[in-house]
Model the fold of this input.
Amino acid sequence: MVELKTLENLFLDTLKDVYFAEQKIVATLPEMEDAATNNQLKDAFAKHLAETKVHVQRLEQVFAIIGTEPEAKTCDAILGITDEGAEIMEEYEGSPALDAGLLAAAQAVEHYEMSRYGTLRTWALELGYNDAAGLLQTTLDEEQATDLALTSIATSVVNQKAEA
Ligand SMILES: [Fe+2]
Ligand SMILES: [Fe+2]
Done:
């Protein structure tokens, strides 16, 4: 017999997915910071690493609110996005387009996170987890701010250099 899963199940599964993704990002950002040559970009990666560690803690708070232990579930999407980033680091090492590639990879990560957090926030509200929704919204705001900061670095310096 097929188990009839609810929005509650979906919320928890997606929470585990993003918990995995955030930990993967904590592991990856230092490599991107090392690889970047532009100082503004290095700083942006360092700043977002600190924020991402807080994102992990916020997710742990959300698990606590819904009364479960934090658990990660392999997120194939983030593995694919970070694999592509690793490919850029390898194939563009020493090239003028490296930073533009790193920026693009980082923005793919932010957009993935924004999509997940937007969904989770909406589901949390529907399920009546208002405090969890607030925490998820706070992280969503930081992902969006990061995406905007990366766009501004891309247009101000990095893409021009890549064209040179
Ligand atoms: Fe995050
Ligand atoms: Fe992020």
Q: What stands out?
A: Residues 92 and 98 are 5 Å apart (CA to CA). The two ends are 62 Å apart (CA to CA). The helical segments are 7-35, 39-65, 76-91, 98-126, 130-163. The chain has a mean pLDDT of 95.
